[in-house]
Design brief:
It is a single chain. The protein has helices at 13-22, 34-41, 55-59, 79-84, 97-112, 115-123, 150-161, 185-191, 211-217, 234-242, 281-299; strands at 4-7, 24-27, 47-50, 66-69, 88-90, 142-146, 165-169, 180-182, 194-197, 222-225, 248-251, 270-272. It is of the alpha/beta class. The strands form two sheets. A seven-stranded parallel sheet has the order 8-7-6-9-10-11-12. Helix 1 links the parallel strand 1 and strand 2 (24-27). The structure holds 2-keto-D-gluconic acid. 2-keto-D-gluconic acid (8YV) is lined by residues 51, 70-73, 96, 275, 278.
């Protein structure tokens, strides 16, 4: 099988370099007219490296046999179309768990201790006129994790280290886990101080955290989303924050990135982060290496290291 790889989106430089070193690679995103390029060359490629592959792109590549997704979440890949065409798909799980959990705890501490407004307070010379107001701590609070998968479990460990009580909502009651399981998200939201979204995106979880769940979280509740913007009803979230019906939010992901609802810019009980949960040098390098290792396995006729399908 020809090892021709099409890089559809800009990836980490070191990852793209390795793809160029090891395979016969081309960058789709550098083509003047990608549509024309695909019409003339789409049949030449066996594999894709990227994170956004829809049915139309797959349709333009009749010899496509493998999609190596840069990321653990593969909601950007049309899995159904890939499955129908027997196209293999890999992702990059596990290597980003710690980075994702670290940003989660970072957002939580920053919100509860108002670290960003406190920094402004010092820089603006306001300290001289009096002390910054007292804040609240994480200790003793209830952290409700939506999706106790590989990332959720790392978040749970760190919340436990912060002396929080961890509970979770998900598809299955994982009896081997020491945390209380809720099969009803509303019931969990009612009793938690922090609702932490760590579940995959896609159709099944679309707007799972809706206006009712946010109401259940209530005035003293914080929302953290490090998963996908699609999991939360963003319009309702902005509205509830505006009305003071939530205590605050830490958001690393949004519905229409990089567009963020401007109303959020005004709120000092909200922390906005540019989808950078996995964006550390160590983790992104590890993700890139795993992607390349999956491509190598595929072209060597071996099983994928981390197959999605
Ligand atoms: C992105 C992520 O993939 O792994 C995921 O699912 O959301 C991220 O790591 C990465 O930002 C690629 O753009």
């Amino acid at each position: 099988m020809p090892d021709k790889v099409l890089i559809t989106q800009k990836l980490l430089k070191s990852c793209e370099n390795q793809i160029y070193e090891k395979f016969d690679a081309t960058r789709l995103y550098e083509q003047k007219d990608p549509t024309e390029f695909l019409r003339d060359n789409g049949n030449k490629f066996t594999a894709i490296a990227g994170y956004g592959v829809d049915a139309s792109l797959i349709g333009k590549m009749p010899n496509l046999k493998m999609i190596a997704n840069f990321g653990v979440g593969y909601d950007g890949i049309d899995i159904n179309t890939a499955a129908k065409r027997s196209i293999a798909v890999s992702n990059t799980p596990d290597v980003l768990n710690d980075a994702m959990a670290e940003i989660t705890i970072g957002l939580m501490i920053a919100l509860s201790r108002k670290i960003i407004p406190a920094d402004q307070f010092v820089r603006q010379g306001k300290w001289k006129a009096g002390n910054f107001p007292l804040q609240s701590e994480l200790k003793g609070k209830v952290a409700g994790i939506v999706g106790l998968g590989r990332i959720g479990k790392e978040i749970a460990l760190r919340c436990t280290a912060m002396k929080m009580q961890v509970i979770y909502f998900g598809r299955t009651d994982q009896k081997d886990q020491p945390y209380q399981y809720f099969e009803d998200l509303m019931k969990m939201a009612e009793i938690c101080d922090w609702l932490i979204v760590a579940t995959p995106g896609g159709k099944k979880t679309n707007k799972l955290v809706d206006a009712d769940v946010l109401d259940a979280l209530g005035k003293s509740g914080f929302l953290i989303n490090i998963a996908r913007g699609s999991v939360v009803d963003e319009i309702s979230l902005v509205e509830k924050l505006k009305q003071g019906e939530l205590a605050g939010a830490g958001l690393d992901v949004f519905d229409d990135e990089p567009n963020v609802p401007p109303a959020l810019f005004e709120m000092d009980n909200v922390i906005l982060s540019p989808h950078q949960g996995s964006a550390t040098r160590q983790t992104r390098n590890a993700m890139g290496q795993l992607l390349v290792a999956n491509l190598e396995a595929f072209f060597a006729g071996k099983p994928l290291l981390t197959p999605v399908i």
